[in-house]
Amino acid sequence: MAHEHEPQGRLDELMREPYPRYARAQAAEGLVHVPELDAWLVARDADVREVLLRTEEFSSVNALRPDVMPSPAALAVLGGGFGGGPVVVVSDGERHQRLRAPLLRALSPARVAAAVPYARERAAALVDAFAKDGRAELMAAYAVRLPGEVIGRVVGLDPADVPLVVHGGYRAEELLFRPLPEDEQIAAAEDVVAMQHVLDRCARDRYTHPRADLATEIVASVAEPGHGQLSLAQRHEAVAHLQNLLIAGHLTTTALIGTTVLHLLSHRDQWELLCARPDLIPAAVEEAARYDTALQGFRRVTTCPVSLAGTELPAEAELFVAFGAANRDASRHPRPDAFDITREAPARHLAFGFGAHACVGAQLAREQLRITLEELTRRLPDLRLAEGRPVTMRPTMIHRSPEELHLTWAAS
């Protein structure tokens, strides 16, 4: 039976440490087909940008194609939930613009700025909870919690519902991208459906009682308020958008917090420099996002025969467009494998995408990471990676991060 697990094992290995494969792809002529991804790997900065700009030829409809098809029993459980319709990440053209519009309004610079005091308050409270202990597992104690609470606030969720929604987001990823025994698939599907029912309740409430929050913006884009109740189809559509937004809003930011702290502490000189010079925090945010990108990439599919990087691709060819690889491209970023928060005039990276599908929540993510670094450098300057607790990265391309991040410092 061991041979049945070999393809998944190779995929996990690639996901946990993709950079060597990226480097080989960048050195090759044309594009390289990667069997583990069942896709052509787009690894050079210029090629990634070209794909992201040529949206009519490189469609995003397969951007979130699952790696695993749930069992019939798990699919039956999912049938009791909501969602499943097209969302902004997997849409093109006019429909993409329509779905993106309420997100742009709800995550405008003014609304992000309005969320910063809450993010700062919650960050301080979360650090307060473990600062005197001398040790913490940062992912569970802080990195998972802050982004969930912040995006929950922006969306307009009841704070009591946030942990269930965050948990449901991780379970949705497990169900569609990790091989699980059938009983675990069923349990994951039940968690996803529980999350969807919370979001449905929120959507129906905002339809009858609009507020100045993102949930109201999304519901209003689905149905004009004041006409009785949302139809079942409208509820499914609203929940699909809310679920996609919430998962994108907390999984990737959690990952970014984890990888940033990991690499700062792994490069001790960089951490000590940041503690001495907090004015470098904005630069550290950008360098961390470039160096180990949380969202490593998205899939695309060709809509017609097309040439890219000298490789002729047929219609319906699958591509993996690797933002993480582009951010280590030496032609764009000198010394790409060096983690250096003092880079002079650093080139613009692709950690938050590019073009029509650029991340609408990028500024909110940056603000949370900035606040995190301000808190940790000021309050715990002697922070260190715990000895004897090696760091293992999650086997995922959607939110690359440590599975756990054990830290120590001198307790007060």
TrEMBL record:
Coiled coil, from the record: 359-386
Keywords from the named record: Coiled coil, Heme, Iron, Metal-binding, Monooxygenase, Oxidoreductase
Gene3D superfamilies in the cross-refs: Cytochrome P450
Domain of life: Bacteria
SUPFAM superfamilies cross-referenced by the UniProt entry: Cytochrome P450 (SSF48264)
Protein family per UniProt: Belongs to the cytochrome P450 family.
Name of the protein this chain belongs to: Cytochrome P450
Top-level taxonomy: Bacteria, Bacillati, Actinomycetota, Actinomycetes, Kitasatosporales
